[in-house]
Design goal:
Blueprint: E1 5-8, H1 10-17, H2 24-35, E2 40-44, H3 45-54, H4 61-74, E3 76-78, H5 82-89, H6 97-108, E4 113-115, E5 129-130, H7 132-140
Parallel strand pairs: 1-2, 1-4, 2-3, 4-5
């Protein structure tokens, strides 16, 4: 089987860290696949910032920094380019900056899937956006 490269949306990571049921199990499974290197996981730089900010009420500074450090051991962090922001800002179809950046990064790095629980927000994506359970089923094939 060839390498599978996925962009992991922030909500998947938050499902694990915040133990958001009923989503935790699938999210843990996906991150476990990255840890064991069965798949190649990617996150965007801005997602790490978002996660760090979102968790400010639930986790201490040290816990949030530790989380980011741990994630960086097991996933690849993708950088956004200035041109990505410019293209998104000049696109009249843009509705959400974060989702648009996710789509552009996944395309720039020729990833296979965007794994997210918000697939409807990725309808314009050239890279397929799929739910965690769908992705887990793909891994079983």
């Amino acid at each position: 089987m060839r390498d599978i490269n996925i962009l992991i949306d922030s909500n998947i990571i938050l499902d694990v860290v915040q133990e958001r049921e009923p989503f935790t199990s699938n999210a843990k499974n996906i991150l476990s696949q990255c840890i064991t290197r069965r798949i190649n996981g990617f996150v965007t730089a801005h997602s790490l910032c978002d996660i760090f900010y979102i968790l400010r009420k639930d986790k201490t500074l040290a816990e949030r920094l530790s989380l980011i450090g741990t994630l960086c051991k097991y996933v690849t962090v993708l950088s956004e380019r200035q041109s990505d922001f410019e293209d998104i800002a000049n696109n009249p179809e843009t509705r959400d900056l974060e989702d648009s950046l996710q789509m552009v990064c996944a395309e720039n790095y020729a990833l296979d899937y965007i794994v997210t629980r918000n697939t409807k927000d990725f309808s314009a994506s050239k890279i397929p956006a799929i739910e965690p359970d769908t992705f887990i089923n793909i891994l079983k094939v």
